[in-house]
Design a protein that fits this description.
This protein has 2 domains: 6-78; 85-210, Immunoglobulin-like, CATH 2.60.40. It is built from 5 helices and 11 strands, in the order H-H-H-H-E-E-E-E-E-E-E-E-E-E-E-H. The protein has helices at 6-13, 22-30, 34-55, 62-74, 204-210, and strands spanning 84-87, 89-93, 110-116, 119-127, 134-142, 145-149, 154-159, 162-168, 174-179, 185-191, 195-201. The strands form 2 sheets. Strands 2, 3, 4, 5, 6 and 9 form a 6-stranded antiparallel beta sheet that branches. A 5-stranded mixed beta sheet has the order 1-11-10-7-8. Strand 10 (185-191) and strand 11 form a beta hairpin. Helix 1 (6-13) packs across helix 3. The longest helix has 22 residues, at 34-55. It starts with 5 loop residues before the first helix and ends with a helix. Zinc ion is lined by residues 1, 3, 28, 33, 35-36.
């Protein structure tokens, strides 16, 4: 069964149909895919909260923040800061770029770039030499000071909203995680005392389907 990646479910819950597959996604849910239903529910909760909070920028809805904190705590996600919840925008995906003929077919390093407000998140995934596993390496910058990383930021690697691993950005804003699979992954950053930035990583499978 072909599953839909997180970024498609984000569009779905935002009522955006950029890739013209909304009907197919609805059908997939109707056919009872519990995996995708769970992914959709996670993003519906996140996107709804983010929207509620944007509409009340000067007065964060305490109830919604509390509910988000409770549901995330239950799912053992990030230690959830008070306030804003943001979904970072994907600005660049190297797998969607034209590839030189000689390079096609080799196991590529994937490069993704995201932005949320002034925060830029650079993500690379690549095979770990001498093993079947992968490594995810990233860096957080402030777009107004691009040469400086953002250090000391708690970062969690999630799979379908459940925490897989936790870390913190180093002195130059870098972080890394070992991976066994590239599907259904998200990153969550606790920025300052009042922002959580969620980064959906497109599935490896969907990327191959698009090339
Ligand atoms: Zn599915």
């Amino acid at each position: 069964m072909k599953h839909f990646p997180a970024e498609d479910w984000i569009d779905y819950v935002r009522q955006i149909d950029g890739r013209g597959q909304r009907a197919a996604m609805q059908k997939h849910l109707d056919e009872g895919c519990s995996k995708c239903l769970e992914t959709m529910n996670i993003w519906r909760r996140i996107v709804t909260l983010a929207k509620d909070q944007n509409q009340n920028a000067f007065e964060p809805p305490a109830v919604a923040v509390h509910a988000a904190r409770a549901s995330f705590a239950l799912r053992k996600v990030v230690p959830f800061p008070a306030g804003q919840l943001e979904v970072a925008r994907l600005l660049f995906d190297s797998t969607l770029q034209p590839v030189a003929v000689g390079v096609r077919g080799s196991v590529a390093v994937r490069h993704l770039l995201y932005k949320s407000g002034e925060v830029c998140i650079d993500v690379r995934t690549q095979p770990k030499p001498g093993s079947d596993s992968m490594v995810l390496i990233g860096q957080l910058h402030n777009s107004t000071k691009p040469d400086r990383g953002i250090s000391g930021i708690p970062v969690s690697l999630l799979c379908d909203g459940d925490t897989v691993s936790r870390g913190r950005t180093n002195d130059v804003g870098e972080f890394d995680f070992g991976l066994t699979a590239l599907d259904h992954l998200q990153l969550a950053f606790g920025v300052g005392s009042n922002r959580t930035i969620i980064v959906p990583i497109p599935d490896g499978e969907s990327a191959r389907g698009l090339t």
